[in-house]
Design brief:
Structural class of chain A: alpha/beta
Helix content of chain A: 25-40%
Strand order of the largest sheet of chain B: 11-10-9-12-8-1-6-7-13
Number of strands of chain B: 15
Oligomer: heterodimer
CATH topology of chain B: Rossmann fold
CATH architecture of chain B: 3-Layer(aba) Sandwich
Number of domains of chain A: 2
Largest sheet of chain A: 7 strands, parallel
Largest interface: A-B, 91 and 77 residues
Number of helices of chain B: 6
CATH superfamily of chain B: HUPs
Shape of chain B: globular
Number of helices of chain A: 8
Strand content of chain A: 25-35%
Strand content of chain B: 25-35%
Order of helices and strands of chain A: EEEHEEHEHEEEEEEEEHEHEHEHEH
Largest sheet of chain B: 9 strands, mixed
Bound molecules: flavin-adenine dinucleotide
Order of helices and strands of chain B: EEEEEHEHEHEHEEEEHEEEH
Structural class of chain B: alpha/beta
Chain lengths: 319, 246
């Protein structure tokens, strides 16, 4: 028996969510008094995972896997789970993680619970807490199958150091037929993605028009954050769809979410509520967002934001 | 081309979510149910294929009779026929098993779903369904073209998009981008009248037990009041020293 974590990497490097998934896996391995095994694919620095508690690292190195293919990767995770006799398989909630997890569970005839935010409250029956109803509620969900697949919500458990001396092994799984082929990847060069960002700066209709978006972009830049927007802003074509956050757009679970000229409609809040600290800048003190935020400034964005950018530049130069 | 669009019948986005039976059950009292917003994009794209390239469009849901208004609405939007699998939807993988059973005997070329349902947010059904059927699968699809049996799709990835090619039969999980918001369909009077005469078939479900069960629910804790700051200096100070996020 073991706990298996798929530690995702991109161009050889682990993302923070991989460390979070390993930290989470460690907790469950301790609860079950068993080994934590981490699976890596073409990762350069696999041994790093021992810092978060992996007892064994199984490494796939295969050039044909340089572009991510969901079918191939889900088959590899399932093969690793079978080889390692894993009782629990943990997968992160990156776009790749969400793509593969249901397939892994189906191959393993396992129960799958996504959006999990805490370590199991009980291991028999195995019970986890997950976000449901678009962040308007939580469910305590029992998993009764022998193998359990858990999709860990981003920025929920945190990264926890736990030093182990891990053994490392090469793993050569069968490579499944890909079925789907990648022909191009278009990344917004030089921009932090909403999924990866610790800080997200978001603009709404209160900004009046796309010509004012330098405020949002400049603020995001001084904070090292990503830019986002409310749904009407993307529907109006002021900003691209991939910036639309909320219940029907991208979910945000960052450390800091700054909402500027956004009223705080229920559908918007549902998608961003999982962020740890929310700041609202709005001219209307009655805007519903003030009820959902930790901090707020009542004021005109066109006055407040330029000041904030200037003061943050000063702050950055001192810190 | 035979298209099947999977419809999830969910609480309207404005719904207040409450629970009954000592927080063990979702309280549907006073809740307005709608077609899952993501599924509307998939349905609208299916209608586009029907009108521009020739296709039949069937909509399907797994659930009890209370889900039928969403199927009728889909018919009013223009789907040709509807299927309801008469089974309690108890988790994503079980729903996928129910759907797979019907699809196996019906040779659909293209299965369209939403990326996730806005109630249980499982994001499970499409990937599980594709795996059960051994069909090609594209998640988070924001652009879809089909020529013959060849599929070109655009998928959202973290920080951008990826262009993917595959072959039918395929399962595609859609979201905004598949069509634009303005191209979503609202049923008109004629559509609503016609929908009444279109076939809605009720099929029995298979025996399938779920491996997961929501045993209780909880609402987020009441938030403490927002701290209003009066200057950007104060804001930077609290974010740095109190919240420790910058
Ligand atoms: C099915 C459905 C799904 C939806 N999904 C989403 C979703 O995923 N995400 C989403 O965002 N919305 C969603 N919506 C839309 C949502 O209901 C709101 O309409 C939307 O969030 C409002 O966007 P907004 O806050 O930018 O605009 P408004 O509501 O118009 O708010 C603008 C705000 O700017 C403030 N303002 C004006 N001038 C200034 C100034 N100079 N300085 C500072 N503040 C100023 C105003 O006081 C106001 O509060 C959905 C709606 C439906 C029906
Ligand atoms: C009385 C009752 C109890 C329930 N208890 C639970 C529970 O304990 N745990 C739980 O997870 N869910 C429960 N459900 C919800 C129901 O099972 C969900 O439809 C199912 O779990 C799929 O949700 P998902 O979030 O995984 O869907 P997702 O995988 O997020 O949905 C993605 C897409 O799959 C398709 N799809 C989803 N559901 C259906 C469907 N029913 N029919 C056709 N297509 C569909 C849609 O295209 C949707 O956009 C319950 C429902 C009822 C009525």
């Amino acid at each position: 028996m073991s706990v298996l974590v798929f530690a995702e990497s991109s161009e050889g490097k682990f993302k923070k969510i991989a460390f979070e998934a390993v930290s989470y896996g460690k907790k469950i391995a301790q609860q079950l008094s068993t080994q934590l095994i981490a699976l890596t694919i073409n990762a350069e620095n696999a041994s790093e995972l021992s810092t978060y508690g992996a007892n064994k690292i199984i490494k796939v190195n295969n050039e044909t896997l340089s572009t991510f293919n969901a079918k191939v990767v889900s088959s590899i995770i399932a093969q690793a789970a079978t080889q390692e006799n894993a009782e629990v398989v943990i997968i992160d909630s990156s776009s790749n993680g969400l793509y593969v997890a249901p397939a892994v569970a189906t191959i393993l005839d396992a129960g799958y619970v996504s959006n999990v935010i805490e370590a199991p409250s009980n291991t028999s029956p195995f019970t986890v807490k997950r976000k449901t109803f678009s962040n308007k509620a939580f469910s305590h969900t029992e998993i009764s199958s022998a193998v359990k697949v858990i999709g860990l919500a981003k920025n929920s458990f945190g990264v926890v150091a736990s030093d182990e001396a891990a053994t490392e092994e090469d793993f050569s799984p069968e490579i499944a037929n890909s079925g789907v082929n990648s022909t191009a990847i278009n990344k917004n060069a030089g921009k932090v993605s909403i999924a990866d960002a610790d800080i997200v700066v978001s603009g709404g209709r209160g900004l009046k028009g796309p010509e004012n978006w330098n405020l949002i972009e400049d603020l995001a830049e001084v904070l090292g954050g990503a830019t986002a927007c409310s749904k009407p802003v993307s529907d109006l074509g002021w900003r691209p769809h991939n910036e639309h956050v909320g219940q029907t757009g991208k979910p945000v679970a960052s450390n800091l979410y700054i909402a500027i000229g956004i009223s705080g409609a229920i559908q918007h809040l549902a998608g961003v509520n999982a962020s740890k600290v929310k700041v609202v800048i709005n001219i209307d003190p009655e805007a519903p967002f003030f009820k959902a935020a930790e901090y707020g400034i009542v004021g005109d964005a066109f006055e407040v934001v330029p000041q904030l950018i200037e003061k943050l530049k000063e702050f950055n130069s001192k810190n | 081309m035979k298209i099947l669009v999977c419809i999830s019948h969910v609480p309207d986005t404005t719904s207040k979510i409450n629970f009954t039976a000592e927080n063990a059950e979702f309280d549907s009292n006073g809740v307005q149910f709608v077609i899952n917003p993501y599924d509307e994009f998939s349905l609208a794209r299916a209608m586009w294929f029907k009108e521009k390239q020739g296709a039949s469009v069937t909509v399907i849901t797994v659930g009890d009779a209370s889900t039928e208004p969403s199927l009728r609405k889909s018919l009013a939007i223009g789907a040709d026929d509807a299927i309801r699998i008469d089974a309690q939807a108890t988790d994503g993988i079980t729903v996928a098993k129910q759907l797979a059973e019907v699809i196996k005997s019906n040779a659909y070329d293209l299965i369209l779903t939403g990326r996730e349902s806005i109630d249980y947010n499982g994001a499970t059904v499409p990937g599980a369904l594709a795996t059960l059927l051994d069909y090609n699968f594209i998640n988070a699809c924001v652009g879809l073209e089909i020529e013959g049996t060849s599929v070109t799709a655009s998928k959202e990835i973290d920080g951008g998009t990826e262009t993917l090619g595959t072959e039918l039969p395929a399962v595609i999980a859609g979201q905004k981008g598949l069509v634009e918001e303005k191209d979503l369909r609202i049923p008109n009077m004629r559509g609503i009248m016609m929908a009444r005469k279109k076939p809605l078939q009720v099929l029995p479900g298979i025996e399938a037990t779920s491996s997961t069960k929501d045993v209780s629910f909880e609402k987020p804790a009441e938030k403490s009041a927002c701290k209003i700051v009066t200057s950007v200096d104060e804001l930077i100070d609290v974010l740095h020293n109190e919240a420790k996020v910058i």
